[in-house]
Amino acid sequence: MSAAKKALKRYFGYDQFRPLQDQVIQSVLQGEDAIVIMPTGGGKSICYQIPALIMDGLAIVVSPLIALMKDQVEGLHANGVEAEYLNSSQSQKQQAAVLERINQGEINLLYVSPEKLLSQEFYYLLLQLKINLFAIDEAHCISVWGHDFRPEYTKMAYLKKQFPHVPVIALTATADKLTQKDIVNQLGLVEPKVFISSFDRPNLSLNVAPGKDKFKSILGFIRQRPHQSGIIYCLSRKATEGLSEKLKNAGVNAAYYHAGLSAEERAKRQEDFITDEVPIICATIAFGMGIDKSNVRWVIHYNLPRNIESYYQEIGRAGRDGAKADTLLFYSYSDVIVHQRFIEESALKEVSQAKLERIQQFCDAQNCRRKILLSYFGEHLEEDCGNCDVCKNPPSSFDGTIIAQKAFSAIVRLKEQVAAGTLIDVLRGSSRQEILNKGFHKIKTYGVGKDISYQDWQQYLLQLLNMGFISVAYDHANALLLTEQGREVLFGERLVNLIHLAKMKSEPKPKPI
Ligand code: ADP
Ligand code: ZN
């Protein structure tokens, strides 16, 4: 038996590794940098805990979740693992006791907050110790593209500079392609191995409905699913209260939950939900973090989530047991406006706006929802899923291979440097000054798409994006890039079906790319 497997059994009591865990561990043991992307609950922790236990010296785990550190470390103690943590919630005395244990070489794993890691005293401490590994948990915090950007994370590039021989492993549950790229660049990882476990949750049915007659639909939905447990996510605290009240009046056993309740009240409602005392909960996004309930059978979004990451995270709370579960998102333009108002007041406006537009496109789309979702996370689903509202009621389509090839050929000839607007102008043979100045009228595909209107091209490109044939470089003026699958289309190795545009739903108006 390998040392890793022995440690898995001895410390955690498990017989088998989950997918990728073993490969990640071997890579770290060989001293390689790695980036690990696994959904929540996928088993990321073991990927650094086991190497820490096998190698000589001390592993440093950086995590922004100070509130969870204590639990994590206590959990490890219970398994017989020597771990400690250092953060600002501890007294001087407590910190001194931990430092003493470190100096005595008694511990294998030290959890620290990013602030601690970046302090000068800690740097001097690191210099004196034998560090075998840096694990950066919640690594998406390093990127403005992640959903939880933390400026202090961007300063961690110094680790690789100061300790070039210590492997760094970055872990996260939610990373779109841009975030992945940011993590690698900003941490200065050296030829990192990239481990991405599938984000696909085939047991979840994905459904989007117009945000009309929501209460009536929800009541019908619940009545078709007696005794099932579910979560209804709302945008505002007030909405959670109003909705649970209406449900109770209709005889449904439901409660509400939001961050405005006292800590005791929140703990109680959470407990009631977990024990199925109150099986249905109307909640803001404050609900769900760290809740491990395997038999949630459905998740409804009463309002549009602010981006695809949040949506994925929230629907992911259904069907943890692997059995069939349903998700339903109500989409209305009024929610978009509410989000836009939040965005106006926030930092990172452009990023948030682009992400909001992407989830609108997801809702408007007439392509397999799962395909869109997975392609957002950089995965390609070969077949349509058959378990989403679009697959169950497919729009009529036609062979659009030639149209796609025209667009893809132009994308390649324009060196993947232009956004949708310029691409369409080239395809349609526009004699706009910028096109002429840049010499785009000389490329071979100039004007080959004249027969299709500007608006129709926008919609076709959106479909091609949704199907994962192209992607958008949001960090590069929204230039369109061709994916591997897109290249296969270009070289005639793959066909593309496009949806007749007359069949596109007209309300709300589809957003252009
Ligand atoms: P993540 O950090 O990816 O959200 P965790 O590391 O907290 O996930 O693991 C989620 C759960 O899965 C934990 O209860 C953990 O003990 C369990 N787990 C991890 N690896 C295995 C395994 N190989 N076999 C069985 N359970 C595992
Ligand atoms: Zn589908």
Describe this structure in words.
With 513 residues, the protein is α/β, with parallel strands linked by helices. Helix content is 42%, strand content 15%. It contains 22 helices and 17 strands. The strands form 4 sheets. It has a 7-stranded parallel beta sheet, sandwiched between helices. The chain has a 6-stranded parallel beta sheet with strand order 8-13-12-9-11-10, sandwiched between helices. It has a two-stranded antiparallel sheet with strand order 14-17. β15 and β16 form a beta hairpin. About 1% of the residues have low confidence. The structure holds adenosine-5'-diphosphate and zinc ion. The site of zinc ion has 8 residues, from α16 and α17. It catalyses: Couples ATP hydrolysis with the unwinding of duplex DNA by translocating in the 3'-5' direction. Belongs to the helicase family. RecQ subfamily. This is DNA helicase RecQ. GO terms for molecular function: 3'-5' DNA helicase activity; ATP binding; DNA binding; four-way junction helicase activity; hydrolase activity; metal ion binding. Its EC number is 5.6.2.4.
Radius of gyration, whole Å: 25 Å
The coarse silhouette is globular
What percent of residues are in strands? 15-25%
* Main beta sheet strand tally, sense and closure: 7 strands, parallel
Number of strands: 17
Bound molecules: adenosine-5'-diphosphate, zinc ion
Number of helices: 22
Low-confidence stretches: 503-508
Strand order of the largest sheet: 3-4-2-5-6-1-7
pLDDT averaged residue by residue: 92
| Overall helicity | 40-55%
Structural class, by secondary structure, is: alpha/beta
- Tell me the distance between the termini: 52 Å
